[in-house]
Amino acid sequence: MNPGSNKPTQQSAGGETVKPSPFTNPIQFLAFGFGSGLSPKGPGTAGTLVAIPLYWLMADLNLWAYSAVVILAFAVGIYLCGKASEQLGVHDHSGIVWDEFVGFWITMWAVPPDITWIIFGFVVFRVFDIAKPWPISVLDKNVHGGTGIMIDDVVAGLFACGTLHLALWFT
Fold first, then answer.
1. Contact of 83 with 146, CB cutoff 8 Å
2. How confident is the model at residue 16 (pLDDT cuts 50, 70, 90)?
3. In the chain, which ranges are E strands?
4. pLDDT of residue 17
5. Is residue 8's pLDDT more than 50?
6. 143 burial via Cβ count (<10 Å: 0-12, 13-18, 19+)
7. Global confidence as pTM
């Protein structure tokens, strides 16, 4: 445990304690979702909540531009998450939430940007991300590095997006 804190410390491969420093390290700042990943309870949920206003900023883009931004965010995320994980000496530190950003943005692909669909998208994405049904659980366990950190949330986002589009089809 960290002295004076109820949060566990992280151990690097060499055994030394490594504390996240997102407010002094630009890679960790982005990987930790502008600090949202420091939430003591539900950092993934906090990160997904922070992704919502960013989604609103992108929602008016045409589908090609939106898709390009999401693909770029995924590619950047592989680097950011891998590098932050390496700096901390821990694979997929719970505070790394850039993957939740990208997963939520995938969830909302070609979905109307109104509050009802955003709430539905948030809930469905979080359910898939937390429950990790097959093949998400297999990817989560077997793919490592920045790609491994990102891929389970990408697939959760694809499942959630499919769920939303199915719901849209029936409405």
1. yes
2. low
3. 10-11, 17-18
4. 43
5. no
6. middle
7. 0.90
